[in-house]
Amino acid sequence: MTALGASLDEKSELTDAVFRRVARLAKENWGLNLEDGKRPLVTARLWKRVIASGAGDFPSYIGKVEDGDQVECDHFISALTTNVTHFFREQHHFDLLESSILPRFRGRGPLRIWSAGCSSGQEPYSIAASVRAVLGASADARILATDVDPDILERAQKAVYTNSETSFPNPALEARVFDKKHEEQQRAVRANLVDLITFRRLNLIQPWPISGRFDVIFCRNVAIYFDKPTQANLWAQFAAHLNPNGFLFIGHSERIETPEAIGLCPAGITTYQKQ
Ligand SMILES: C[S@@+](CC[C@H](N)C(=O)[O-])C[C@H]1O[C@@H](n2cnc3c(N)ncnc32)[C@H](O)[C@@H]1O
Which domain holds residue 185? Predict the structure, then answer.
């Protein structure tokens, strides 16, 4: 190996000590639980920022994030989040929403729904499609969609997807969200769905600038990246932000250990209702 090659390898290696700094930052600021098995992935994702930021090596780069450099903090969290999502993911939640929850709001409102950890927007646009399907054009409904990752939130707000990002459980659901399959690469979400949604940046493990309560909260496949105490605290906060009889949907591999302790009762697959 050349001398240059050796020095590059050293610079691009995330040592035990520096990985611990990364993990501490991710946990304390964003709740993310980075176990050692994630080190290769974290190394690959953050190395791009080491280069782009001009820091030159991992310790200097992490120092910028530790010092609170806002630009690098934003890139850091974008690099570490997992944003996988689909339209009508875990379709049973949408079935319950349409059969049992939304009909209660016919002719009455306002209905407030929160998609927390909305990623690139497929979840809130699917919720909006369900709201339009059940409550129609005059629905008195608002959907708040939040995420901590500024890049993914910007993509969500654009409401434009490539054909490869638009897989659906069936063509009928697809037709609710998009006019028709375009020949072009870009497809825009129907305007009457976009109209229902407000996007905001929000870090779930910092105090929430949210007033009022919700009738339905979706927080799916987000808490899975947090440790157990952080998850428990999150579930309790969601419970406190639900209206009486409101519903909380969580991800397929997530669990609320003692829902009754926070005023919730099980109401279906990974679904809880406020008592
Ligand atoms: C795997 S996606 C889930 C998207 C969607 N809820 C679904 O189930 O398809 C997880 C999302 O959680 C967001 N996230 C991670 N940590 C967060 C935090 N501390 N506050 C808010 N959002 C967070 C990520 O940015 C990412 O977009």
Answer: 91-274
